[in-house]
Amino acid sequence: MGVERGLDGLRKVLDGLGFPLTRDEAVAAALDAGADEEIVSALRAMPNAEYNEAKEILAAVPLPEREPGSHTESARSRERGPH
Fold it and tell me: Where is the region Disordered (predicted)?
């Protein structure tokens, strides 16, 4: 069972998590929730810090609908389409 993609999926992953938490704890929570590679990659790209609330994480992750130039590699591959 996976979660939605993008920011909506990330919000669902973050719902109910206890804060503060580190980047690595956020990545582990996403993996446990069945998040897709885009969300996991975006979380791994965040600065290694302690986050005190979900909105700090939402502001720190490079997801396509927020910053088109900062897509994860998997998102860029989908945009390019089949070779």
Answer: 61-83
